[in-house]
Amino acid sequence: MINKEQIQNLANTIFQDVVGYRRHLHMNPELSFEEFQTSAFIKEKLTEWGIPFSSMANTGVVGLITGDLPSEQVIALRGDIDALPIIEANEKPYTSQNPGVMHACGHDVHTSSLLGAAYILNQLKAEFGGTIKLIFQPGEEMLPGGASLMIKEGVLENPKPQHIIGQHVMPFIEVGKVGFRSGIYMASADELYVTVRGKGGHGAQPQHNIDPVLITSHIIVALQQIVSRNADPRLPSVLSFGKVIANGATNIIPNEVKLEGTFRTLNEEWRAEAKRLMKKMAEGIAESMGGSCEFNIMHGYPFLVNEEKLTASARAFAEDYLGAENVVDLDIWMAAEDFAYYSQVTDACFYRLGTGNKAKDTTYSVHHPNFDVDEDALKISTGLMAYMALKQLGN
């Protein structure tokens, strides 16, 4: 019977290598669906360890480790591999060498951790039964999301996993700890692209114009009513606009204004109704003020659900591996993740890996140009994932 000491010893053995994997990936980040060198690096390691793999969704890699003992149980482990279009502000030996691209969301940690877990599991395959599917997934940061593409291409088939587990860095949790939440955890996310058209002209002669800037201002304020007066107050909803382009001047009213934003919630029925109401309200306001509004919605990721039984068992395994004092409760998180697609298809558990350390200045939020992690987190990220997989398989 495999015990946690075996896994912890293997995790310690591979730790410096995993740090090296993480730093290599951090120095060579690639944008969503362009992760060709990252994919090649993953394949190189799996080949070195004799782990069979296949390609999927162009740059995705799916490895298989089958234990030598009899069992038909299958579990999937997922790590995303893409980076973000951010200019890194850190000055570290492993700072991004790809200008304008940065692993600012910790996907380098996820990928290197899954590689480390793969090494551990492969070393132990003579001692366990069942199959572990290793999903190195591209394109988490860009719609339609690499998860949706891999599911369409059959990543959850042949063999079909009964469970899938994923982890994500969290700088607001102290390194050495992990966090879990059962049930609905993360929000759906839709992108809003709005064009408001009017009639431009001289700013000193507004009577001759139809001001799209003014119309847009009314639309932005009025749409918040959808959240404050139409949504059930018990249901979290977020509507935010982060980009407004008018391209006029101090005395020039433009012909049109571009507006971009996001809508997030935790209920599919309300999600659909809110989008209908937003479109109707924006178009009505523009028309009433003499202009027009083109309101386009890019349907994004669904909300993420952690299956209760799987999450409870995963949490118990984490408490056994790390100690109960190092496992914390998570609150609802209104960010979105394409891991949600897996959770809509099979039993899923998505947990958080603490990477924060004030002394090492690793408490910047994800997607920040100064984001970094305390690499001591890699001491537990590999072994914990391997341990949870084996325990879930019944070993």
Which keywords apply here?
Bact_exopeptidase_dim_dom; 395 residues; metal-binding; 4-stranded antiparallel sheet; hydrolase; Alpha-Beta Plaits; Aminopeptidase; 9 helices; single chain; 8-stranded mixed sheet; metal ion binding
End-to-end CA span: 7 Å
Identify the overall geometry.
elongated
The helix count comes to 9
Order of helices and strands: HHEEEHEHEEEEEHEEEHEEHEHEH
User: At the fourth CATH level, what is the homologous superfamily of the largest domain?
Assistant: Zn peptidases
Low-confidence stretches: none
Can you tell me the CATH topology of the largest domain? Aminopeptidase
The residue-averaged pLDDT reads: 97
The number of domains: 2
User: Total number of β-strand segments?
Assistant: 16
Q: How many strands, which pairing sense, and closed or not: the largest β-sheet?
A: 8 strands, mixed
Give the fraction of residues assigned to helices. Answer: 25-40%
Report strand order across the widest sheet: 1-2-4-3-5-16-6-15
DSSP strand content: 25-35%
What is the highest CATH level, the class of the largest domain?
A: Alpha Beta
Radius of gyration equals: 24 Å
Class per helix and strand makeup: alpha/beta
CATH architecture of the largest domain: 3-Layer(aba) Sandwich
Topology record:
Elements: H1 4-27, H2 36-48, E1 53-56, E2 60-66, E3 69-80, H3 107-123, E4 129-137, H4 146-152, E5 163-174, E6 178-180, E7 183-186, E8 190-197, E9 201-202, H5 212-230, E10 237-245, E11 252-253, E12 256-265, H6 268-288, E13 292-298, E14 304-306, H7 308-322, E15 327-329, H8 339-343, E16 347-356, H9 378-392
Parallel strand pairs: 3-4, 3-5, 5-16, 6-15
Antiparallel strand pairs: 1-2, 2-4, 6-16, 7-14, 8-12, 8-13, 9-11, 10-12
